Amino acid sequence: MATEHHDPRDLARTVLRRQSIELPSWAFGNSGTRFKVFGQPGVPRDPWEKIADAAEVHRHTGAAPTVALHIPWDRVDDYAALADHARDLGVRIGTINANVFQDDDYKLGSVANPDPAVRRKALDHLHACVDVMDATGSRDLKLWFADGTNYPGQDDLRTRQDRLSEALHSVYDRLGTNQRLQLEYKLFEPAFYSTDVPDWGTAYAHCLELGERAVVCVDTGHHAPHTNIEFIVAFLLRSGKLGSFDFNSRFYADDDLMVGAADPFQLFRIMHEVVRGGALDEDSEVAFMLDQCHNIEPKIAGQIRSVMNVQEATAKALLIDTAELAAAQQEGDVLGANAVLMDAFNTDVRPLLAELREEQGLDPDPMAAHRRSGYTERAAAERKGGTQAGWGA
Ligand code: LRH
Ligand code: MN
Ligand code: MN
Q1: 221: containing domain
Q2: Is 42 within the bounds of a domain?
Q3: How do residues 43-66 score in pLDDT, each as one tens digit?
Q4: Does residue 23 lie within any of the structural domains?
Q5: Is residue 51 part of a domain?
Q6: How many independent structural domains does the chain possess?
Q7: Using a 6 Å cutoff on CB, does residue 254 contact ligand 1?
Q8: Where is this region: Disordered (predicted)?
Q9: CA–CA separation, 367 vs 357, rounded Å?
């Protein structure tokens, strides 16, 4: 019996219609390097305005319905009211990011700090973040620890793991049954000699120990050069431990440039494993987030471009003829298999995405629609007084 050969375009349309990408509130604030922060006119002065900017991205892309908060950068008195504000603007609050790296107290670390009083303070903050989740209805708590050491001998590497594990258990136990802990890893920076959660293996091991609702966050900028990130994605999806992505691009280290800008082919390979591993299936719980800073380019437009870059890589991954690919792989047809992948990567998917946008009543060109809207000029005229939000406030 001949097997039915499905047109990959049909699947692509279905999946692309429901794909959603979460925006980081901090992408809308001023940011820079340690050498200089270049301010931009109309940048939000508070979390309310950051959410308004995120809503502008969703208005034109139709694919960014949630916005992640970073606490305390996005501190407000009433988080339920902030969630209502988001809803009024057509978006929702997504992941809550904890921040235990910006106080003087954290010089030697947060939850792995040798001082129990500092560890307590950090843990109290993590618990407070779960309170915020309760108020906003957020599902995910994302933890990234800047903890580590700068010099050999500075602290005991193994004891630091014990302290970390203790804190993670305490937070995990505090979570509601529908809430998850996302553990993010990063190779180095700000610590340079040792980092307490430096790689996916460490994050994975802690998550395994914690339980089902502890999952790994893969920030695409947090690896050594030449790391095969799609392998990590394949492995974690296979074991049910991939919780989320923090998407961005890197040339050197944690550059936080626009996703898909530095290496669109890598993003395509990652999205291929995402599709292969079922992370875009209807019942998938994997969160796709951006974690970026737009230092020299306009921020809202930068986010729109990023959403489109993810959509394009996804579309290409969905166009891979999986039946042909599997057949070539089975036959050991090295070049044939590679050609199936490259054919999909080299397809211009922009017309397909434009068509899908029109179907949803959107402008086929979100960048142009945003430009025409005059939103940025209006924001610059209206947002007078107060202090612009920066990366860290
Ligand atoms: C750390 C990180 C983490 C933080 C964000 C601002 O480098 O990727 O996700 O929360 O940057
Ligand atoms: Mn990140
Ligand atoms: Mn980062």
Answers
A1: 19-318+349-382
A2: yes
A3: 999 999 999 999 999 999 999 999
A4: yes
A5: yes
A6: 1
A7: yes
A8: 359-393
A9: 13
Nearest CA among 128, 205, 206 for reference residue 164: 206
Please tell me the residue having the least CA distance from ligand 1 atom 2.
144
Residue whose Cα lies nearest atom 6 of ligand 1: it is: 291
Q: What is the DSSP letter of 25?
A: G
**Nearest ligand, CA 247:** 2
**Interior/surface letters 104-130, b for 16+ CB within 10 angstroms, e for the rest:** eebebbbbbbeeeebbebbbebbeebb
Distance from the alpha carbon of residue 245 to the mean position of ligand 2, in angstroms: 8
Dist. CA 189–CA 219, nearest whole Å: 14
How confident is the model over 69-91, as pLDDT tens digits? 999 999 999 999 999 999 999 99
Taking the CA of residue 26 as reference, the ligand 1 atom at the shortest distance is 6
Which tokens hold the place of 315? 């579309």
Going through the chain in order, the beta strands assigned E by DSSP cover: 23-24, 66-71, 92-98, 140-144, 148-149, 180-184, 194-195, 214-219, 242-247, 287-290
- Measuring CA to CA, how many Å separate 17 from each of 127, 160, 320, 322, 363? 36, 45, 18, 20, 15
Would you place residue 390 in the very low, low, confident or very high pLDDT band (cuts 50, 70, 90)? confident
Contact residues for 303 (Cβ-Cβ < 8 A; gap 6+):
23, 27, 28, 54, 57, 64, 290, 292, 294
The whole-angstrom distance between residue 332's C-alpha and the CA centroid of its chain comes to: 36
Lookup result for tokens 């109290």: 124
Question: From the CB of 324, is ligand 1 less than 6 Å away?
Answer: no
Whose CA is closest to atom 4 on ligand 1?
144
**CA–CA separation, 253 vs 266, rounded Å?**
15
Question: What pTM was computed for the model?
Answer: 0.97
Phi-psi sector, 42: left (phi>0), alpha (psi -120 to 50), beta: left
- Residue 303 main-chain phi, psi, to 5 deg: -70, -40
Q: How far is residue 166's CA from residue 110's CA, in Å, rounded to a whole number?
A: 12
Residue 314's CATH number: 3.20.20.150
Tell me if 291 CB under 6 Å of ligand 1: yes
Q: 184 CB less than 6 Å from ligand 1?
A: yes
Where residue 385 falls (left for φ over 0; alpha for ψ -120 to 50; beta otherwise) is: left
Asked whether residue 97 is domain-assigned, the answer is yes
> For residue 329, how far is its CA from the centre of ligand 2 (angstroms)?
35
- Split at pLDDT 50, 70, 90, the class of 1 is very low
What integer pLDDT is reported at residue 320 of this predicted model?
A: 98
